[in-house]
């Protein structure tokens, strides 16, 4: 099984073009394979003949991704898709549809704010399912317990303070929780 | 240009020419990877790995949506090949995918 992931970031949205993003996924998948398929090596060597080299175009990268993801079950994870520039987002979703069509053992995992949900559903048709992610008290408590176990100054903690932390922080977080 | 790249994607099934691995001259491999994309998401990935806490977000694995996606596709009888986890900023979306996938497959740990 192969996993490739990408993290969108507002501050880098111009550099995070669909071609660069899919190229980044492809790099990770190739590193996982351990070797580079001959077709890609040939394309690389061919482009060197052009003056200054030649960058890959989106259809090329999509075809390469489809081919490489077909070699084994693959998970592609895209984090913060809402931070992708809108013009890029549609191209990315369209590219994912093409990859999924050519590579039936590929799964896509995406995260993002709720306002892009409609666009994701529209572009991926009926092939997507949605889950609302909300703050959960059980997660907050697990997190706090783990952090306290790793406390580098445990001598500063007493049972009163520990109880206060375990009571107050989950309460405060549930009060500030924004319904999604 | 290879015809394989210009033809339809059906030519890229499991028995495609990508199964022919060419041994790359050691010096060329970093150049090929850099040519594919200048982006390096490893730094952010490392942050996610270091910040995450075991068992946080495990509830997602029990949802019907997750199971239908994870086990779906042709063999599982579901067509839900994409899962979209949505929510407001700060609810832990960026960490939950790690729990969902990498947490289940320890060989992919950082």
Q: Which regions of chain B have little confidence, pLDDT < 50, spanning 5+ residues? A: 1-15, 106-110
Instruction: Please give the CATH architecture of the largest domain in chain A.
Output: 3-Layer(aba) Sandwich
Number of DSSP strands of chain A?
4
- Write out the CATH superfamily name of the largest domain in chain A: P-loop containing nucleotide triphosphate hydrolases
Q: Specify the structural class of chain A.
A: alpha/beta
Tell me roughly what share of residues is in helical segments of chain B.
Answer: 40-55%
Number of helices of chain A: 7
Structural class of chain B: mainly alpha
Highest-level CATH class of the largest domain in chain A? Alpha Beta
Mean pLDDT of chain B: 72
Q: Count the E strands of chain B.
A: 1
CATH overall fold name of the largest domain in chain A: Rossmann fold
Oligomer: heterodimer
Pattern of helices and strands of chain A: EHHHEHEHEHH
Low-pLDDT regions of chain A: none
Residue fraction in strands of chain B = under 5%
Mean pLDDT, all residues of chain A: 89
> Distance between termini of chain A?
33 Å
SSE string of chain B: HHHHHEH
Helix coverage percent of chain A? 40-55%
**Largest sheet of chain B, described in full?**
none
Task: For the structure shown, list the relevant keywords.
heterodimer; A: 180 residues; alpha/beta; Rossmann fold; 2 domains; three-stranded parallel beta sheet; 7 helices; 4 strands; B: 110 residues; mainly alpha; 40% helix; extended; disordered C terminus
Description:
The complex is a heterodimer of chains A (180) and B (110). Chain A has 180 residues and is an alpha/beta fold. In chain A, 52% of the residues lie in helices and 13% in strands. Chain A contains seven helices and four strands; from the N terminus they run E-H-H-H-E-H-E-H-E-H-H. In chain A, strands 1-2-3 form a three-stranded parallel beta sheet. Chain A is elongated and about 70 Å long. Chains A and B meet through strand 1, helix 1, helix 2, helix 3 and strand 2 of A and helix 2, helix 3, helix 4, strand 1 and helix 6 of B. Strand 4 of chain A pairs parallel with strand 1 of chain B, so a sheet runs across the interface.
